[in-house]
Design goal:
Elements: H1 6-9, H2 23-33, E1 37-41, E2 47-52, H3 53-61, H4 74-81, H5 86-89, E3 96-97, H6 103-113, E4 117-121, E5 127-132, H7 133-136, H8 144-159, E6 167-172, E7 175-184, H9 187-196, E8 203-212, H10 220-224
Helix pairs in contact: 3-4
């Protein structure tokens, strides 16, 4: 199943900061543009890191009781909390993704790396955009008609090789209902799984019948015993 790419959903108009941007200017830029992360870009265009709201809030977090004992993993955070410029407070290296990666790969990266933003980098190293969890949710804004059309053409016709008239596809608020008849019983779970993989699908309910129960067909081993 072909998923939308990062390029299709990312935010293209990227507000960036230089490594020398002051702490106050970082806060002001985020507030003015209503964003929660700023890629930090060197003068030569190379990505140096990223500053998020979480990075800036550490200054508040560590403000009191600076002498308090902290676990070793907090030492870097404490040091960055005292930073006055983007270079001193940013997270580096930034977690990036290619523009042609799928939205599924992007969602997995966000989840596994426990971050809220990915900087999108072209093959030549240029910043192409920034991707947030909010951007990934755009796939759920696809119309029911778009979803039904993709399931009919890609899942039923191309993948399963069936006459699309054999399966009725109803989509309501992203919830797909499949009814009709497929050729083999083994096609039923395949149809459900492939339909669920279509971008924008919230859930799939199936009432599919089948013409042949291929789960009961004799195997090569069975035939060899005769």
């Amino acid at each position: 199943m072909t998923h939308r790419t990062v390029r299709e959903v990312m935010t293209r108009s990227v507000v960036t900061a230089s490594p020398d941007t002051s702490f106050r200017a970082l806060v002001a830029s985020m507030s003015e543009h209503r964003i929660s992360a700023l890629p930090v870009v060197e003068a030569d265009g190379r990505l140096a890191g990223v500053v998020s709201e979480a990075d800036l809030l550490r200054k508040e977090e560590y403000q009191d009781d600076r002498a308090a004992r902290r676990p070793p993993r907090d030492h870097d955070r404490r040091a960055r909390a005292g930073g006055l410029t983007a270079r001193e407070v940013m997270s580096s290296p930034a977690i990036t993704i290619a523009p042609e990666a799928s939205v599924v790969a992007a969602a997995r990266t966000l989840d596994r790396r426990h971050v809220h933003h990915l900087v999108v980098i072209e093959a030549d190293g240029a910043v192409a955009g920034i991707l947030s969890a909010h951007d990934l949710l755009k796939v759920y804004l696809r119309t029911d008609e778009e979803i039904a059309a993709e399931i009919r053409s890609h899942v039923i016709t191309q993948y399963l090789g069936l006459d699309p008239d054999r399966v009725d596809i109803a989509v309501k608020d992203g919830v797909v209902t499949l009814r009709g008849e497929v050729e083999h019983k083994s096609m039923v779970p395949l149809a459900i799984r492939m339909a669920r993989d279509v971008d924008g699908v919230v859930d799939v309910a199936a009432g599919l019948a089948y013409a042949i129960d291929d789960s009961r067909l004799p195997t090569a081993a069975d035939l060899g015993e005769r």
